[in-house]
Amino acid sequence: MSNSKVAEFTAPGMNSEAAEQAIAQLDNRMVALIDLQLTLKHIHWNVVGPNFIGVHEMLDPQVAAVQEMTDTIAERIATLGGVPVGTPKSIVDRRSWEDYSIGKGLVKDHLVALDKVYIGVNGDHRKALEKLSELDPVSEDMIIAQLAELEQFQWFVRAHIESSTGQLQS
């Protein structure tokens, strides 16, 4: 399956080349968010140990919010004339990072690993913003709003692995 622009139209006032470049940026973010929501649910199911219930219950609202972000991006891709492809194989084929490696594990281990996932997702959202700022202010605005929420989720995770002196556990 191709995720390239296939429609003969895009958003009014936007040229096709800018639309195709914006779609590519959005597709990358969609893949990352689909992966993130699955990773969050995996952690939700497999976290154990002290503070289990707090972490278990913290993750479900993150899953729901990230799922909504994914839907928003997919619909923007379609609006711009692209095809949002979210099948499992296509997601794995298009991602550029390794699979989450922890199965059943302690709260600390999962949250340290999840912080690294958020570092990647949030950093790549910022990189996409640089490109989208020149291509499509609507898509840029969507990603800005998502990044604010994703950074707050990372803060929630870090609150569990931060010392009183501000050092993160590793």
From TrEMBL:
<dbReference type="InterPro" id="IPR002177">
    <property type="entry name" value="DPS_DNA-bd"/>
</dbReference>
<protein>
    <submittedName>
        <fullName>DNA starvation/stationary phase protection protein Dps</fullName>
    </submittedName>
</protein>
<dbReference type="InterPro" id="IPR008331">
    <property type="entry name" value="Ferritin_DPS_dom"/>
</dbReference>
<dbReference type="InterPro" id="IPR009078">
    <property type="entry name" value="Ferritin-like_SF"/>
</dbReference>
<dbReference type="InterPro" id="IPR023188">
    <property type="entry name" value="DPS_DNA-bd_CS"/>
</dbReference>
<feature type="domain" description="Ferritin/DPS">
    <location>
        <begin position="23"/>
        <end position="162"/>
    </location>
</feature>
<comment type="similarity">
    <text>Belongs to the Dps family.</text>
</comment>
<dbReference type="Pfam" id="PF00210">
    <property type="entry name" value="Ferritin"/>
</dbReference>
<dbReference type="InterPro" id="IPR012347">
    <property type="entry name" value="Ferritin-like"/>
</dbReference>
